[in-house]
């Protein structure tokens, strides 16, 4: 994008957020919510608060990353605990799992916003989210969540461009949705499975890979890697190291998907 376009877009977003009066930001530390947090800090100052939810579905390292971003953009930051696993609809893991997850999140955040006197609950949803299966947006609508990036028509590329302009530390951070997104629909979600996925992904990252998913298929952990990493990962020595890393998390079998990682791949199997 041209610099002038980014300037205009930033001004529009800051006007939208300023008009809210005060805001509690649902803050994962990913680029989308980080940009909203940065804009809220600029627009609202002490009347903005970023809140990160902690649960078994949060991958190791994500909370530390969120804290780093919050400090860098100058927004107050707190954590809350969510218990989506108490919801039968979440544990069952049908195609609407994300609805139950986000309902739990927004129930807790809405209560906190009311308690603290924040006028709005804000998320980092962007226009590209409309092109994928996002039942969490229904939960957001039910809770009156405001989506400044989505309202401004911003897609992921524009989000990253503006995040770079504002020196947001997570501007280039790969997407990292909750660990339950690695479990195919119809396979129950439980703490043991979430921990196993987390452990497997952490073990592979320790080998120097960054953008990845370990998909859970019972006793099989199947790794998806970015296209740029696939060739070296398939070299015999590297491949054996990776497979051993996945098995170290408790999987009896391990595999590397020959197809490059694509965000939302499990959603592609859903019927229209």
3D architecture notes:
- The chain has 272 residues and is an alpha/beta fold.
- It folds into two domains: 3-165, 3-Layer(aba) Sandwich (Rossmann fold), CATH 3.40.50; 190-269, Alpha-Beta Plaits.
- The chain is built from eleven helices and seven strands.
- The chain has helices spanning 3-18, 31-44, 62-73, 88-92, 97-116, 136-142, 148-151, 156-165, 191-205, 227-233, 236-247; strands at 23-26, 48-54, 76-81, 120-122, 212-217, 220-225, 253-256.
- The strands form two sheets. A four-stranded parallel β-sheet has the order 3-2-1-4, sandwiched between helices.
- Strand 2, helix 3 and strand 3 form a beta-alpha-beta unit.
- Helix 2 (31-44) packs across helix 8 (156-165) and helix 5 (97-116) packs parallel to helix 6.
- The longest helix is centred in the middle third of the chain and has 20 residues, at 97-116.
- The radius of gyration is 19 Å and the shape is globular.
- The model has no long low-confidence stretch (mean pLDDT 94).
